[in-house]
Structure formats: C-alpha cells, structure tokens
Amino acid sequence: MHREDSARDPETVVELGVDLLAHLEHEQLPLAAVVDRIETITTDPALTREILDTAETRGLIEREDGLVQPRSGAFLRLDGDVIAREGEFTCRRCGASLSTGHFIQFEAGEHGPFGSSCIRKVTGRD
Fold first, then answer.
1. What is the pTM of this model?
2. 89 and 95 in contact (C-beta within 8 Å)?
C-alpha cells in the first residue's frame, strides 16, 4: 500500500488518526472500513487501537457490534480543507503514481497525498 511516514512521531500519528475519525461523513461504518482509512496514516496495530480508543474516549465515535458511528458532526470541505498540489506523488491509500496530490489539512497536521478518487473514499464522499 503506502510507505509509513517515519518522520511522524506516534503522538502526531494518533492525533492525525483521531482528526480523520472526527471527520467521517457516514452515519455508521463497518470497523473494517474505518481501519482502511486509518491505514492511510499507520499500519501499526497498536497505534490503530490507540487511535480508535482515543477517538472513542473523546466522544468522537461510538463502537458497537463491529460498527463505528461518528459523533463529532465535523465534515471536511473539499474546497477548503483539502488542497491539491502538482508534482510527483504516490497515493497513501492505493499506491498509484500521481501528478496531482490531494492533501487534507487537519489541526494535527497535513495528511496525504491522495489521488482524486482515493481522497473521496478517505473523506467519505464515496
């Protein structure tokens, strides 16, 4: 899939993951779909658990019977919270080569790049 960003410390990884979960645009998602999104940030199982636990503790999600329900009511604006840059990139979700990378601007930092279809998947538009 994608290469881990070793420049990110675990605390930043957790905060980026929590920000991502806080902005899920679905009434509910299967846990596997949520983990798919988290894996764009980290594939470390311990960090994935910490992201889920932290988001739940903060009241941003609820987990029950293999489903995750977002509770924050926050949404990303593709025209403001996501920026596109031209260059040579590799999509963090699917690994495709990109000439335009889409980056999500979170409080904890920037997350990306993603291709045009993967950014829609990660942000919950598809």
1. 0.81
2. no
